[in-house]
Design a protein that fits this description.
2 helices, two-stranded antiparallel sheet, elongated
Length: 69
C-alpha cells in the first residue's frame, strides 16, 4: 500500500513540476512580448505576474513532492 502512495506522489509531483515550468515560461514570454498576442491572448506586463506566481507555486510544490517521496 505504501508503494502505491509513493508512486502516486512521484507521478503527481512530476505532473505539477512540468505544469509549473510551462506556466512560468508562458508568463515570462508574455512579460517580454510588449503588448503583442501570446498564444492568441493579449497579456499585459501587470497581468503576467499572476501566471508567474501560480507557476512558481506549482513548481515548488511538485519538486517538494518528488523530493519527499
Amino acid at each position: 500500500m505504501d508503494n502505491n502512495n509513493t508512486n502516486f506522489r512521484r507521478f503527481f509531483g512530476a505532473t505539477l513540476t512540468i505544469l509549473g515550468v510551462v506556466v512560468v515560461l508562458f508568463a515570462l514570454v508574455a512579460f517580454l512580448s510588449e503588448g503583442r498576442a501570446v498564444l492568441g491572448m493579449h497579456v499585459s506586463k501587470a497581468e503576467s505576474t499572476a501566471p508567474f506566481i501560480v507557476g512558481m507555486i506549482f513548481l515548488v510544490t511538485g519538486v517538494n513532492l518528488i523530493r519527499e517521496s
